[in-house]
Amino acid sequence: MSTQKTFSFELFPPKTDKGFEKLRATVLTLNERRPAFFSCTYGAGGSTRDNTFATVDWLRSQDIDTAPHLTCIGNTVDETLGILERYKHQGINRIVALRGDRPSGTGVGGGDLAYANELVALIREHFGDHFHIEVAAYPEMHPQAPSFPVDIDNFCNKIRAGANSAITQYFYNVDAYIHFVKQCRQRGVDAPVVPGIMLITNYSNLARFSDACGAEIPRWIRKRLESYGDDSAGIRAFGAEVVTRLCEQLLEAGAPGLHFYTMNQAGPTLEIWDRLGI
Ligand code: FAD
């Protein structure tokens, strides 16, 4: 397999000491595979701020390439710039720049910046080319977008504002990804769009997440998962088969890498990684 492709892992900031202990073990195991970077999520409005900082601090103490997520909604420009300064001083040179959602589930109101393209422009204005900026992409359309073409235009504006590449919301429909990338290329945007890969290990959690973020679980996958009931080993085996095939098809279709939503667990991600022979 081509070594040009970028493989990365996403973490979320744990809330407890036990969670941190588990995260450290997960990262040390996954880091043996030499990913391009680990990203760490950030709760919109700063809700996970301290735990995100603690996670990022530990990753940097291990000299691990780290890409903190940063949301702009609900924050002042000064707060946002302060966080970016902190990261710059830690030797961080990659950021995942996002709008985030308000607790109501919408992005409306609050803070100095309304959309992710404004955050991207702010980073470029104050930090030049210091940061490699990743932004979010939605092959199945962002749930609040008025239409697919408008959403793709908005995505392209983030790249034009200075983002280098994108990571997608997860999806299980390869054609949606291929179509999205084609639409970007038709608009003259050729930034790499790396698929975000959500592992399938638990049906009820996946169904809940998917309803919230607008990612579709195809009917045949839902039906198969439902049929396993409480058989978690069956769900994991079926999930690994589906996700491995998805990754293979994406890489064959030219995806420039894969970004795994690890959910702070090493095992399920490594199973896919090994099956793919990365
Ligand atoms: P934007 O790109 O700003 O888009 C949001 C909506 O507004 C879209 O419907 C878009 O079409 C529209 N829009 C964009 N620009 C404009 C404009 N100028 N005028 C009018 N409409 C516009 N959330 C977190 O809270 N923390 C995280 O760490 C986090 N990490 C994520 C990582 C990835 C890879 C992804 C895919 C999502 C992540 N999210 C995270 C969720 C994300 O914050 C939400 O999906 C949020 O609703 C949109 O963020 P965005 O950066 O895509 O917003």
Please summarize what this structure is:
With 278 residues, this protein is of the alpha/beta class. It has helices at 17-31, 49-61, 77-89, 116-127, 148-160, 174-186, 203-213, 219-227, 232-252, 267-276, and strands at 6-11, 37-40, 66-71, 94-98, 132-137, 165-168, 193-194, 196-198, 257-261.
Short descriptors:
9 strands, 278 residues, 10 helices, alpha/beta, globular, binds flavin-adenine dinucleotide, nine-stranded parallel beta sheet
Give the end-to-end Cα distance, rounded to a whole number of Å.
Answer: 7 Å
Mean pLDDT: 94
Low-confidence stretches: none
Shape: globular
Q: What does the main sheet amount to?
A: 9 strands, parallel
Task: Please give a structural write-up.
With 278 residues, this protein is of the alpha/beta class. Helix content is 47%, strand content 15%. It contains ten helices and nine strands. Strands 7-6-5-4-3-2-1-9-8 form a nine-stranded parallel sheet. Helix 4 links the parallel strand 4 and strand 5. Helix 4 runs parallel beside helix 5 and helix 9 crosses helix 10. The longest helix has 21 residues. The protein is globular, with a radius of gyration of 18 Å. The protein starts with 5 loop residues before the first strand and ends with a helix. The mean pLDDT is 94. The protein binds flavin-adenine dinucleotide (FAD).
